[in-house]
Amino acid sequence: MRFLTQFRRFMLMNNDATIARDSIKKCGYFLSLIEGSKVEGWTERMYEWLDAVHTNPHLLFGCTPWQEMEREFKDAFTDYAEHERAQDEMKKLKMKEGRIDEYIATFERLAHRAGVDPNDPSNLRTFAQGLPHPLVEVIIRNDSPENFQQWATSAQRQQRNWLRIQSFKNSYGSPSPQRPNDRQRQGNNFGNFYWHQPEQAQGRGGFQRNQGRSNPQPARPRLPPRNDDAMDTSAMCKATNDKEKEEYRKTGKCFECGKQGHLARVCPTKRNRQTSSNRSVDIDDYESDHGLADVRFDPADLAMRAM
């Protein structure tokens, strides 16, 4: 088909030449362009037929030699599976990278090879399925095309409008990044890197306390709040030897009741056991709170110091 199209184009360009106006000469020139071992038998047979037609024109039955030659050529060399292959390619065709003009031209070429009408509703649906879904929706909403030419024109216009919108968006520049919330910072390593930079943390709310420091200091661990209603377990939680006291001191526990949040000298369990009229200072508590297990003081001296 490509060879036949090229020959037709050449004849149209030389329509005023004698070889183009004489059907016998046109057929002879056409046969002279066909070469190769696979077509020698066909060309020899057609030369014999052409010579017989030149001698007896009544063999044509009302048609010209070129019309009969063209029909014989198509019957001999047309690939009859070409239609099925072209239809299959039409169904798989997709518009890529916004090249709408290339998509339309390819679809038209495949429709011609398949021998189908592009204005047929089933072929129009095939054309639309190869376009991006948002583009198809815009085309139907704005133009409601009914034939192939309307579909092609609308697709080109809407694609140009989309490209124009994108160019305006790019001219405004990218928006400034927003500060992510705590959940986004926990789930986004890039966000943690961006917002935890010392130079960017200055002047940003809770990060201001790091100003003037070369390295931000980690927060000190806080003990859990004291629960006065908790069950008294002093009988089994009180530190009774130096090893237990050292262990309690490391974990921040009270030597008297084993709870966290207070020291032994202000332990509520001990205060409950003492009377308000006879209050004294426990030497063991003083030793526990200050780590002075080996130092001994006189109770009277401690009472004077407390005053």
Give a description of the structure.
By secondary structure, this protein is an all-alpha fold. The chain has 3 domains: 2-77, no CATH class; 82-165, no CATH class; 234-306, no CATH class. 58% of the residues lie in helices and 0% in strands. It has 18 helices and no strands. The protein has helices at residues 2-13, 18-21, 23-32, 40-55, 65-77, 82-92, 100-114, 121-129, 133-142, 148-172, 182-187, 189-195, 198-201, 234-237, 242-251, 268-273, 283-290, 299-306. Helix 3 (23-32) packs antiparallel against helix 4 (40-55). It is rod-shaped and about 140 Å long. The model is unreliable at 184-213, 231-236, 275-297 and 299-307 (pLDDT under 50).
Task: Summarize this structure briefly.
With 307 residues, the protein is mostly helical. The protein has three domains: 2-77, no CATH class; 82-165, no CATH class; 234-306, no CATH class. The chain is built from 18 helices and no strands.
